[in-house]
Automatic annotation (TrEMBL):
InterPro entries: AAA+_ATPase (IPR003593), Helicase/UvrB_N (IPR006935), Helicase_ATP-bd (IPR014001), Helicase_Restrict-Modif_Enz (IPR050742), P-loop_NTPase (IPR027417). It comes from Blastococcus saxobsidens. Keywords: ATP-binding, Helicase, Hydrolase, Nucleotide-binding. PANTHER family: HELICASE ATP-BINDING DOMAIN-CONTAINING PROTEIN, TYPE I RESTRICTION ENZYME ECOKI R PROTEIN. Residues 33-192 form the Helicase ATP-binding domain. This is Superfamily II DNA or RNA helicase.
Amino acid sequence: MGPDMGSALRAETLSPQTTGRPLRAWQQTALSQYEESSPKDFLVTATPGAGKTTFALTLAARLLSRREVARVVVVCPTDHLRLQWAEAADRMGIVLDPNLTNAVGPVRAGTQGYVTTYAQVAGKPMLHAARSTAVKSLVILDEVHHAGDGLSWGEAVEEAYGMAARRLCLTGTPFRTKPDERIPFVRYEEDTFEGEAGGLVSRADYTYGYKEALADNVVRPVVFAAYTGTSRWRNSAGDVVAASLSEAGTKSVEMQAWRTALDPKGQWVPHVIAAMDDRITHLREEGGMPDAAGLILASDQDDARAYAKIVRRVTGKPAELILSDDPKASKKIERFATGSARIAVCVRMISEGVDVPRAAVLAWMTSYRTPLFFAQAVGRVVRSRATHESATVFLPAVRPLLALAASMEEQRNHVMPPPRTQPDEELEALDLPPREPREGEMKQWEALEADARFAHVLHSGTAHTGEGSGATVVVGEEEEEFLGIPGLLTPAQTAELLAKRDDELRLRIAASHRADDGDFMLVEDHPDEDDAGRSWRDAAELRREINKLVNRVAARTSQPQAVVHTQLRQSVPGPPSASASVDVLRARRERLRTML
């Protein structure tokens, strides 16, 4: 029996006690539905935090054990998710290499497959086609909406995996497409509205919505805390304009008021960060979440750096700053997910798929406003670990975000089917960030100042201001806490307490501004963790050691490094180091040591 099949059989025999994660009811049902027909293509739409990864890997383990497939290929959006998938697979006895590049031809021996990204597939689709057809393969397309033709990756994905034996498509939110932007391997049906054709809509083979997940205690209930305030800015004509976030009038004025509120120099950002910090403190001390954490979403890297400094100034604690161009970004996400830091500031690094179960608070300090991004970002804080946990999202009181929040709250009372196709203008905004000003446009625009005031709590699509309820809200000493857990306090009580806390926060922010800013320290990098026991990590470390030893041998013998590599391949036969097994790499390392 080969190593691949041995690992596959181990995966099949894993019990819930072995994996530490018994299958949820929806996962069992979806697996049963799949196995009834063993389809070539299967699309699962499950709300963020429901456990799509566990479902997919359980299915993969079963197909491997029955020899219905011999290889598993996972395609995901980002490099960090490659590591996350590989770690999850490793826990289930499936060895997937997250480091395989397009420069390497064959899949490394000793693995059951690999994890790649949509960008890599688009770079060399025929290479991935060869890998997925060399043996019968299950291809898992994570967040499959990334494979739309409109993103230029659709054709590459279809070319790479059109001949694969099995394909499993996963998405965290129902998605829509225009008729000319079909996503490969997804079934579409004609949609109708009031008896008339309304374009095409994707149809999932299995759907698990927010309503069902909430009833099953799989996700946390979400409370949206909206903050308004007055923004003042100077427009391109040199005029000073002032407007309220929640009463801006036109869309153009609303966008400028929103943009000004997010400016780090104003008062809106520190005020909301202080409210967010209070919520984290409450969850840690009174809410049964001693490791509770929060995420701040920024529009760009400059804002993210500035927000991290504000976190340090307002809370007295450093923020974890996670930027996409930081080579240590994945390590920082992993450290934040398993550590004790209170707040992480990021741009889009934690918006999709990244698993940070202890994150229960989100501050929306970005101009992104598409339905898909909103659902994915909020999905980072809804993953439930215990029945009493809740999630809180702080956001500007602007119409686009309030509409999205109300829509998500409606999911609690209605099934979450794929949305209907809308007019082109709205469709174009589904997957894209807001349009940026053209070159030279509004270049004289300048944010002047912005304050913040609590506006309301949005719960089940209804706004509660905490004022004018017509009845006296009696709150006992034990209940008088900031943003009480839904179920202990009514939405009206929650709003009243938040409004009461607002004046205290304003005084706190004023005091922090009077203090000397000084130099703000971000969280320092920690040494790498012990990665022993992970075969693909062992291979990566061995390749690094071999390269260092080759350099030393070349310097000592005055030979080119290429010659040393050739001699090494002759002494220890096998494929190039990039695709060699761990055993071959270890033998080559020992051979090099004898040459010194």
